[in-house]
UniProtKB/TrEMBL annotation:
Residues 23-476 form the Aldehyde dehydrogenase domain. InterPro entries: Aldehyde_DH_dom (IPR015590), Aldehyde_DH_Superfamily (IPR050740). Belongs to the aldehyde dehydrogenase family. GO terms for molecular function: oxidoreductase activity, acting on the aldehyde or oxo group of donors, NAD or NADP as acceptor. It holds the Pfam family Aldedh. This is NADP-dependent glyceraldehyde-3-phosphate dehydrogenase. CDD domains: ALDH_F11_NP-GAPDH. It comes from Polaribacter marinus. Keywords: Oxidoreductase.
Length: 486
């Protein structure tokens, strides 16, 4: 694929390209697979994309922000109908590009389609609500929501379809125009959609560019013509990119960032349930989810039992290629990830932890088997860093204030899972936990969905809120027409 989408044109690119390779090999012998190439665009094309988005927005007077609600919905429905015909192709890319299992790739596709339809319904409801009038102190108000402007949207590799669309769809529905740069992995899967974008939306409304993040995003931001920076990724890149904007007061941020979600297993927890939920929470998609359980606090009375049974279950997980039946662990898409996980393991071992599962840490070129580390303490890197991969640190605690203090001291505050059965203990604990994170999962692992619930975080975990309901609001501003009693 050597085309990119700017100003309604699928432009041919004859300049430099970069290879997209997969760490998946269909043979027994590991050999990275070349999947395709993408254009390595330059500052010039990035600025052309921005110019196209600015023209379509035209300071709120352009074609898209002035398009009627029903017409924007028609464009979105037309796009989604075409997208649905590409399911098999996109699912295949998800498996090969990022190593997501067939079941999870299909789920990601279907969840994205549902997300679009649910957002459309929510948008219709919002529009119906805006037809109502309010009256306070003799002033009538007709309140509605308006767009914010031009959005620069950057997506992550772990949910290249679903999280991309969790930003793009609400941004577009609300009348904003977008320049979108996909992640390095999970980029080819957009190629089957370029034409659908082109023929469903007016020119300049959606612009899709490829290349190095810094080369493209920096000049775009420096123009000061971006109104919203929307990204799902890490706070280091988010901060570096936003710094380029010359007038930050004019820049809105919609960020989904890192997390270090803990599980707290209380002494009276149903251990079977806790172990199964922690297993799924810590290992699904090899731990490459911002919502993954990244540290487990287990009460000292049950830690021995928990560790034994949890480790056995981890070792029983099937590793294989994404399309294999019952596969739970798959090759890691980032070539440097196994070495990074190994660093965390070595550091923890030097400082007194052990790998307590038999297969933990076994490596191949493109993989490292999930390592369960115990006992973990604050001196270890794995205690603090968002590993985003297959390693699970376990900390034993005596007093509930220990995990609570750690959570209060953490840079992150997305979610927590708590396992226990005594309501008299759980109720006051939950009251404390909700002041540290944004979602408390009772006897269940952490997750983003169902997508109607607010998805956000405290501290370095998020800026603004996503969800079918909230994202439409995050990408818009309340405006109103006021009139006085006559
Ligand atoms: O990587 C962060 C995702 O938002 C996680 O979503 O909980 O549905 O896997 P999920």
């Amino acid at each position: 694929q050597q085309t990119y989408l700017v100003d309604g044109e699928l432009r041919e690119w004859s300049g430099a390209t970069s290879e997209v390779t997969s760490t998946i090999s269909s043979t027994k012998v590991y050999k990275p697979t070349l999947l395709g190439t993408i254009p390595t665009l330059t500052e010039k094309e990035a600025l052309e994309a921005l110019e196209a988005a600015n023209k379509a927005y035209d300071r709120g007077q352009g074609l898209w922000p002035t398009t009627k609600v029903e017409d924007r919905i028609n464009c979105m429905e037309k796009f989604t109908a075409q997208m649905k015909t590409k399911r098999a192709e996109i699912v295949k890319f998800l498996m090969w590009e990022i190593g997501k299992s067939l079941t999870d790739s299909e789920k990601e596709f279907d969840r994205t389609v549902d997300y679009i339809y649910d957002s459309i319904e929510e948008y219709k409801q919002m529009d119906r609500d805006s037809a109502k009038f309010e009256k306070h102190s003799g002033v009538h108000a007709h309140i509605r929501r308006g767009p914010l402007g031009v959005v620069l949207c950057l997506a992550p590799y772990n949910y290249p379809l679903n999280e991309t669309f969790a930003l793009l769809i609400p941004a577009l529905l609300m009348g904003n125009t977008v320049v979108f740069k996909p992640a390095k992995q999970g980029v080819l899967l957009l190629s089957p959609l370029l034409e659908a974008f082109q023929n469903s939306f007016p020119a300049g409304v959606v612009n899709i560019i490829y290349g190095r993040g810094r080369t493209l995003a920096t000049p775009i931001m420096k123009t000061g013509k971006v109104d919203v920076l929307a990204l799902i990724g890490n706070s280091k890149s988010a901060n570096a990119i936003q710094e380029n904007h010359p007038n930050k007061n004019r820049l809105r941020l919609v960020f989904g960032l890192e997390a270090k979600n803990p599980a707290i297993v209380l002494p009276d927890a149903d251990l079977d349930l806790a172990i199964n939920e922690c297993l799924a929470g810590a290992t699904s998609f090899n731990g490459q989810r911002c919502t993954a359980l990244k540290i487990l606090y287990v009460h000292e009375n049950v830690v021995e039992e928990f560790n034994k049974r949890f480790s056995e279950k981890v070792d029983a997980l099937k590793f294989g290629n994404p399309w294999e039946e019952n596969v739970k662990l798959t090759p890691l898409p980032e070539p440097g990830k196994p070495a990074y996980i190994q660093e965390l393991i070595d550091d923890a071992k030097e400082k007194g932890a052990k790998i307590i599962n038999k297969k933990g840490g076994l490596t191949s070129e493109n993989y490292i088997f999930p390592a369960v580390l115990y006992p973990v303490n604050k001196k270890m890197r794995v205690f603090h860093e968002e590993q985003f991969g297959p390693v699970t640190p376990i900390v034993s605690f005596k007093n509930i204030n220990e995990p609570l203090d750690d959570m209060a001291a953490s840079n992150y505050g997305q979610q927590v899972s708590v396992f226990g059965s005594d309501v008299a203990i759980l109720a006051p604990l939950i009251d404390r936990l909700v002041n540290l994170v944004c979602r408390v999962n009772l006897n269940s692992s952490c997750q983003r969905g169902p997508d109607v619930y607010p998805f956000t975080g405290r501290k370095d975990s998020a800026v603004a809120t996503l969800s079918v309901h909230d994202a439409l609001r995050s990408f818009s501003i309340r405006t109103f027409v006021a009139s006085k009693d006559t």
